[in-house]
Amino acid sequence: MHYANDLDVEYILHSSILYRDDNNNAIAAAYTAAMGEAMTDKTKAQWQTMADKLKIEARAFINGHYVDAHDGATRTCYNPATGTKLADVANCGIDDADRAVQGARDAFESGIWSKRSPDARRAVMVRWAQLLEDNADELALLETLDVGKPIRDTTGSDVPGAIRTIRWSGEAIDKIYEQVAPTSHDTIGLVTRIPLGVVAAIVPWNFPLSTTAWKLGPALASGNSVILKPASNTPLTAIRIAGLAKEAGLPDGVLQVLPGPGSSMGAHLATHMDIDGLTFTGSTPIGKKLLEYSGQSNLKRVFNELGGKSPNIVFADADLEKAAEAAAMACFYNGGQTCTAGTRLIVEESIHDRFVDMVIEAAKAWQPGDIMDPATAMGPMIDQGQYDTVKDYIAIGDSEGCTRYGGDSNIFPESGGLFLEPVIFTGVDNSMRIAQEEVFGPVLAVIPFKTKEEAINIANDSIYGLGGAIWSRDISNALSVAEEIRVGTLGVNNYFGGDITVPFGGFKQSGNGRDKSIHAFDDYTELKTTWIEL
Ligand code: NAD
Ligand code: MN
Description:
Layout: H1 6-14, H2 26-34, H3 44-53, E1 60-62, E2 65-67, E3 74-78, E4 85-90, H4 94-110, H5 118-134, H6 136-147, H7 151-173, E5 179-181, E6 187-195, E7 198-202, H8 208-221, E8 225-229, H9 236-248, E9 255-257, H10 262-270, E10 277-281, H11 284-296, E11 301-305, E12 311-314, H12 320-332, E13 344-348, H13 352-363, H14 384-399, E14 403-405, E15 423-426, H15 433-436, E16 443-449, H16 452-460, E17 464-465, E18 469-471, H17 475-484, E19 491-492, E20 507-508, E21 525-533
Parallel strand pairs: 7-8, 7-10, 8-9, 10-11, 12-13, 12-18, 13-16, 15-16, 18-19
Antiparallel strand pairs: 1-2, 3-4, 5-6, 6-21, 14-15, 17-20
The structure holds nicotinamide-adenine-dinucleotide (NAD) and manganese (II) ion (MN).
């Protein structure tokens, strides 16, 4: 199963072994959510009981052991849906980072992992994936509580996707061949890939487990030592999976997990002279800083996966029913806190009014609710800061003269959480801030077009180039437009399509690296030439 489509949803719905599903894809969960179907066979009460009993590991993981921060500092982690405290998490600083880098370097130089055969590394990665699968419910619950993601999403997408990513990366590593160059008869030119060495991975709060797996899969399988810094407000699954990696046989020091602040400890990793590579998922402004830090320090390889403002183009001849449901899902999934969210809906003028009505109708499936209830499709904003940012953008859209549907009232206030309902702006011009800037909330901007050329120009008129989609029944129309759109991942008659087998990353200011697929291994290895004269 490689593509997200209705068949995948059918498969998942009727699959009794939810976690065995190999679909690494948000769309299946999202479509299912829109259809009002649960992705888990546990009830809300059962999840709640499990949450009440949950023991949360909140320490850093350094050199194979769970440890407190060197200075004993902690940072309290809250459930964004309720405001209740989850844990006091180790808040690592410079000393912890230096210790972790030294341990990672020692492990790398020892060869205990870096020089282990690909087959042996494969075996550890696959065992680790199995342990993740054995603990899938716990991981889903942790991610739900920590991030405020509906349990449907974590059981249906984040956790099975992460499992598949780790398993796939492990399974790939003993199947990749290296190259012999076409040289003259008395020479041999070997072109090999060797691990970078010590790699730092810095990840965001919106898809903590998914983005972590995208980094750790290829980085560890390639033989690197990795220092993982989760976002300071969503460290819990990263901490948990490190212990499972040890249990699977990953040697001490090869994976270090440092929960802590980005601005100090994260920046220290990024400027560290003994870190060879830095893989990042997060915002564009921080991605720019990381490139500067690299230049100021040791020119470590930096691969960025950054923000987006992705175009979703709907032609009049599209399957409008399907396109409208997907347009709502593309923007409102994960509360719009998705880098590839389809936030610019670019609609052919002749169907504009009718289609907007259909999207408004489809948005009703994305009312926020209790994240522990398997029927809930949308959770809260991650924190007060993000909530306020989104509210500000709603005010900006109003002041730019757009027409707004939704967003008048704070809903679900009894939760104490940070919930927003879907907002749709029409009458948007692509030059407006609401069309140019990443909101990172459930706010859709609808922009009309008359000609195909105009649609292409609007879609490309952005500093970003991450995701997008085109909807048309005329395949030559769709493909001729697809060819012109400058984004890393483009759907034709689907949104959020793709799985672990295809690369994911951005053009322009959406970044330079590629997660997923065999191409991800390029970010964690150096190409080496060995020229042999006979
Ligand atoms: P962020 O850039 O604020 O933080 C990301 C990570 O960087 C966190 O771990 C943070 O602690 C760390 N950090 C912050 N300042 C740092 C510094 N000076 N040096 C080193 N590390 C630092 O982003 P966020 O708010 O956590 O995540 C949302 C952003 O991530 C959005 O812009 C979104 O589009 C983007 N994102 C991109 C992708 C992708 O693959 N392209 C995927 C998910 C999210
Ligand atoms: Mn949290």
